[in-house]
Each structure stands twice: as structure tokens, then as C-alpha cells.
Fold these 4 entries.
Entry 1:
Amino acid sequence: MLKSTSEATGLKIRSHVLTYQTEAGPQFIDITDNVVQLVQQSGVENGFVVVFSKHTTAAIAINENEPHLIADMVEMIERLLPKGHEYAHNAFAHSLNNGEPPNGHSHCQHLLLGSSETIPLLDGHLTFGQWQRIFLVELDDSREREVVVQIVGE
């Protein structure tokens, strides 16, 4: 799981890649416990953690892990940028005859959510609010996703 490690003048950098199998979008996958475990193993006490999705159709978001709220967020994403809408990307993807699914909606949804979150690290702990959790948000079809977690500090 460890991709690279660097230390220079007391600064530590720990980089990891987490892999998840998603089911379908929109899907909110709580990855907080995996990130916390990496922080605990890192030996970094103070700094920050970057959580980054390597995909343009899967996002990273911080919010509350409450089932009704997640249902509201899924409904909002689907209402704002519905899968059934006509997107130029879909026509382009199909014109190439490359097997790419029509996923213009998931690229546009990603634009609203973003690729990463940065969390301050203080005394070996992520400085979350009481209810905050980190989510990998699948916006497209089922597939394997990679999330980079980079821990930087001393």
C-alpha cells in the first residue's frame, strides 16, 4: 500500500494508494477509518493530510455520514445533473466507437464536488468537526477506484 516515503530536515511525507470497488453512482463510501489508520501508522504528528481521487468521475468530499442526509445528497446530485440528460461528451464518446459509456453526467457532477480534500493534522489527529467524515463519491458505473492519501508534516 505504501507508494513512497521521504524525509528531509524533519519533514515527513507518507504517500499511500487506497483501492475501492464501487457499486454504482452516486454512491458515498466512507473512507475515514482507512485514512485515520494511515495517519496513526505514519508517525506524523503535525501537518496536513491530502485525500485525492485519481479519477474525473469519482470525487472526494467531507460531510456527515447520516443515511437520510446521504439520500438527500444523492437526490441533489441526480437532480442537478441527471444521467438521462443529453451531454455533448456522450455523443463524442459514442462517435469514437471505443466502448466508453455515456457518462457526461458524472464528469459534470465531479466538477461540483472536486478531486480532493485537505485536513489539518494536530497532535497525531485529524482536526475534524464532530460529525465530519471523508467520502469517496462514485459518480459513474461500478469500477475499481484509487484514492491517494498523502500525509505531510513532522
Note: The mean pLDDT is 92.
Entry 2:
Amino acid sequence: MSTGADKTEKATPKRRDEARKKGQVARSVDLNGAVVLAAGLLGISAFAPTVLDVMAGSLRTGLTRIAQPQELMTAAGLGSLFSSTAHDLLRGIAPMAAICAVAGIVANLGQVGIKPATKALTPDPKRLNPATGAKNLFGIRAVVEAVKSVAKVGAVGAIVALTLIPKLHELSTIVGSNPAAVASLLASTVLTIAQRAALAYLVIAAADFAYQRWRHAKSLRMTKQEVKEEFKQHGLPQEVKAALRRRQLQAARARMMAAVPTADVVVVNPTHFAVALKYDGTRPAPEVVAKGQDLVALQIRRIAEEHAVPVIEDKPLARSLHASVEVGRLIPEELYQAVAQVLAYVYRTARRAGGMHRRTA
């Protein structure tokens, strides 16, 4: 069974295409947000005067109509006021909203293309695996997200400080100025800060996108044997490929069943899942030597009972092991304690039975 260290070859086009169909693509959420933010600021810079004129006109019209309350005493008059105000608001915001929407679509398409991944919409119970969730919370991914958050907060803080400190004297002179001058200066300062923050966010997002591409490429790496097998099957008829897959599956299942008698314990659910574990002390953690569901699980259990391998019922552990660990792999750290308790129970039971190595539970 291959390990991560064995996967030294770049993914073939077929492997990348299969991953894409499953929705596994390199994508940075921060890049989408940065592009939309930058586009929104450009929209504000371009359409701010128009928006202000529209809003000012709407406000004047509203105040004029309110000054004649007799016109608003009817449902038609009040509805007309609300309708015209909403129309003006929509007319002022629509250009900037359209720019942000187009920018968001372009940013997504630029990262993942236009090929839809329908398989990504298919429900997958493995996504609910608590072991995978804990790995995302406490693994390298969480560290990267924490570094990005600190970088974003630090960049915004530095930009605000570098923008406001040189303008402190200028800001102090606006005391007593007319409202229009104050509003103009404050708007210019805020827009400058926002534009610089957006630029810094774009730099961080670009770095994140590069990291996501590297991480995605690393996750798709293949072993040399996998590359050889793929080239062997390339160009073969579908019937031959299906026959080869069936033969490989049968051979793998036969090897797996042959390893069940060597296991130290079989954890079951009690009939839907079965996982055989082996721990000989030479490896840092127990190894999954066989696993299966439904009929395969029943066969694993039958072979275990025939060879006096203890069969322990632990529904949560059986589900977690079956969902998160492949045959030939060591169990993850988050399952060490649960598996250790099962093995300790098996060893204690064997000692009480007079030194028998195994017993059937």
C-alpha cells in the first residue's frame, strides 16, 4: 500500500480530470473577496457623483411631497412615494452591484473554469466524518488560515496608520469648516484607506491562490506504479478495462481476507461495518488490515470467528475507522485512544482466559 512519501509523480491529465469532476479544484475564497472588493471600490470611484445626484434628487422629491401631507393620506399617494424612492435607490446602486456581481463571476471562472462539477453535488457521508473535521480544525490548514487572518488584520492596521498619521495636521484644520468641505475630506481619506487595503488584500489573496494550487497539486500526486498502471490501461476498450478492474478488486479482496486471521481484533457495527486491526509493536500505530461493509463485513466477521480473532462491537469506532482509514494504512492520531481501549480490553480478556492469544467476543 502506497504512502504519501511514495507519491512523487505529478498527476496525469486523467487524474486531474477525475478530480475536477468530483469538484476538487484549486480555489481561493480570499481571491474572490479581494476581486469583488476592488471592483466595488472602482465602481464607487466611477459612479459616486451619479449616485449622490440620484440620492439628492430623491431626497428633495421626498421632502417636497412630505411638505404636502394631504397627498400622502391615501394608500396610492404613500405607495407612490415608496415606489419612487425605491426606484431611485435601485437606479443609484444598480451599476455598482452589477460591477461586483460580474467581478465575482469572473474571479470564480478564472480560478476553476466553466466546466460544472455535478459529482460535487452528490451527498457524501465521508464529509460528515468527525475525524476529518478535527484534522481541518487543528491541522496545517487551520495554521494557514490563522496566518492569513493575522496578515489581513495587520495589513489593514498598518494602512490605516500610514494614511492617517501624515494627515493628522490636515484633519485638525477642518474644525469649524463647512459640512461640504468636511465631508469631501473624510470621503477622500476613507476611499484612500479602502483602496490601499484592497490592494493589500489582493496581494494576500494572490499568495493564497498560489498556495491552494500547490496544495491541490500535491494532493493529486501519484506513485510511479499508479502512473504505469494508468498508461497500461490507456487506449484499452472499456470492456477490457472493466474486466481488469474486477480482477484487481477480486485480488485485493482475497489478499484482505487472507490478512484477517493475522488481526488482533475486529471492530464491528455490528453487521453493517467491520474493520480488522493489527498491532505488532513494530509500527507506531495499529494498522487496518481489512475492512468492509454489509456482505463483506459479514465475511470478515465469519473468518475472524473461525480463527478465534476477537470481535468487538463499537459502532462509532467502526464507522470512523471504515470512513477515514484505508486498508494497509495506520490509524490516525485522533483514533489512538479509542483503539487503545479496545486493544487493552482484548489483551486483558486473553490473560484472564489463561494466556490465550485471542478469543471470540
Note: The first strand starts at residue 265 and ends at 268.
Entry 3:
Amino acid sequence: MTVTIELSPDVEAGLLAQARAEGLNVSDYVQNLVRERISARSAGASPPAYELPPEEWVRQFEAWTRNHAGRNLPVLSDEAMSRESIYADRGL
């Protein structure tokens, strides 16, 4: 099967760079991507978060947070979570 798609210049550049980085031509690289996606769906893997309806994303996120409850994780202070504290040595 032959499929023709129009890509924006930035997507095209990214696709070419990724294919080159893996030592593949673009056709083989795209076929690998499609094969991986089909395999993941066939294996029952969840779709990526950006493809979920908002309600399902919230449900999965809340389930994930409940999974971390009771682990006695440290609570960070507001200062530790401030932008200044996180990026202090980068000058940002």
C-alpha cells in the first residue's frame, strides 16, 4: 500500500532526523512506527494520554495518584518547589 501525506516543514525535518539517527530511510522508519503502534494497540496497551477523552484522562490520573497514597513520601516546602529554587544555578 502506498500512502501520501503532507507534512509541515518542521515535522518533516524531525522525521528525517529521527530516521537518520536510527540509521533508517524514512520509509522504513515510518513503517516501524506504524508497526509499533499497531502492536501496542493489539496488545491492549492504553492509548497515549493526549488521545484520551478528558474524563478518562482524569480517571486514570486519579487512579495513579491513589496508587501513591500511603507511601510516606516526603512533602516538599513551597520554597523547594519555587521556580527560583529549581532554576537557581541556571540563571533563569
Note: DSSP finds four helices and no strands in the chain.
Entry 4:
Amino acid sequence: MGVRRSMISGCAAVVLALGTAAGVQAQAPRVVAITGTDAMKYSVTAIEAKPGEKLTVKLTGQGSIPKVAMAHNFVLLALKADAAAFSTAAASARATDFVPDALKAQVLASTKLAGMGETVEVTFDAPKEPGVYTFICTFPGHFLAGMKGTLTVK
């Protein structure tokens, strides 16, 4: 009997472990792959998500200009944030990858800078409040050149 109980307990543990692993896979984030180019454009400018959906944004730098002169990031701003004002303030925040410490409360998610051939990523939960959220590249001049997009939560 002792052996039989042990086998049953062992089987239950395996089933429980498999069930847990399956649950983890079901909650894996949806990956959104974006490329940033020397033309200062994102390859993806519109993302749709459900409230609270887990997303991973993978941003890859593509081009030939060295990172010191051409790099990209992904900065998702809060619903009421002023993207132009944020971009202007970010221009002098090189030490923090052009995300100013004073405005971090307006940032919902952000990556480090990606130079040519580099990939950076951030995993986050989409906001729970439906709306259209702006994401921008805060490397100086990129937002003004049109390097921006929207995350629509509905």
C-alpha cells in the first residue's frame, strides 16, 4: 500500500506540475517586433491590445549609422502625457537613455537605446483604462521626424 500511495502521489505531482506549466504558457506575453531605422521611423506604428494584456515589445535597430548618432528606444506614455513636451525634455537626458527622471511618472513602459543590429525589449501590462496611448522614440529629433505610434486599448 505504501508504494501504491507513493505512486499515486507522484502522479498527482506530475499532473499538478504540468497543469502549472500549461498555465504559465497561457499567460505568456504577446510579442510585438518593431524595427527602428536610419530614416527615423518605426516599422510598426499601431498596436492594439486588450486592457491588462501582457505585451513584450522587441525593438531592433536597423541601419548603418553608429549608435552615438542614431539609436532608438520605445517609450509608452501615459494617456494624458504631452508627447511633444516629453520629447523636448528628453533631448537633454542622455545619461538615462533620453527618458528624463523628472517625467518618469508619465512613462508606462520603456526600453534602453538600440543601435544598429541591437535588440532591446520591455514587457508590460497594457493599461487597464481603454484609450489611445502614444509611444515615441526619445532620441533627439526622432519624435519630430515622426518616430511615434499608438497603442489602442479596447
Note: Helices lie at 2-26, 83-90.
